[in-house]
Specification:
- The chain is built from twelve helices and 14 strands.
- It is of the alpha/beta class and 357 residues long.
- The chain folds into two domains: 210 residues, Rossmann fold (3-Layer(aba) Sandwich); 114 residues, Rossmann fold.
- Helix 10 packs across helix 11.
Length: 357
Amino acid sequence: MGEPILMKGNEAIAEAAIRAGCRHFFGYPITPQSELAAYMAKRMPEVGGLYLQAESEVAAINMVYGASGAGARAMTSSSSPGISLKQEGISYLAGSELPAVIVNIMRGGPGLGNIMPSQADYFQATRGGGHGDYRTVVFTPATVQELVTVTMKAFDVADRYRNPVMILGDGILGQMMEPVVLPEDAPPPPPKPWATTGRRGRARNVINSLYLDPVELEAVNLRLQEKFDRMKETEVMWEAVDVEDAEVVIVAYGITARISRTAMEQAREEGLAVGLLRPITVWPFPEGAVDEIVRRGVVKRFLAVEMSLGQMVEDVRLAVNGRVPVAFYGRTGGIWPEPREVLEALRAAAGKVGARE
């Protein structure tokens, strides 16, 4: 580990990917993630890697497919509408069991929306996004340092399960600058005997997601589901702050969790028993952490806070399973909630303890 240096979030992701062994990046510019691609354009030639600006997002994700199929650590990044264009290719990656890392620095929508931060791509990221039954592990970091950490981890998780992994950030996190400590280069990834690197005296490898026999395709889906179940058991991550005595627990991720933590601290100063549960993976969602909080018997209400009109709140409600009320506060259109707004929502939630919604 070296000394802390000041880095923008987008650039920190790119440098972490390089240190994780990524040597193939395919992208297309879109605000607010363009600095990530620009950084890759500069750094990849310096480390013997390949940067290629594709003619479209559709082309970029299919180039990732080809590089991953040949055994390379490959990555792409975009922002919301660009990720929508990549969804078919992400489904192909999952169906062909190819590892890849996809970064979404979310912006306002729907449609072209604007270039301001948002968290309205949650459904797209956690429900697969493309066609068919598939899942991707979805990391939701909250600091520039954590962007580095989860990017390094994302490549290992993708290789471990032979599955695409998504890093879900937003325009604030991508653009903000914070001190980070960059890790040393990761060791080389383990060999990939399944990769299409030429036969060289072995049986040929075939990468495929087309199964015309429905019985065969069902068997493939069931096998993939077993893999997704293992992800749910082993890859879930979260942070819990002051939840042991909390009567109201905020659930928030990414930059919104940082805003909510400030509001939580202000609420504590007012004598309100408030805690924070911050998912670091939103798929798998930390259902067990929610369940543990409920089982303590102290919490009276959850408050989901998002930069959307309510998407993660559905997973909170599923995890709570009707045992206590779940409230929601959100902003949209590229507007982020300020701590005073969250504090007001906390006051309202605390004042309604015991009420039904």
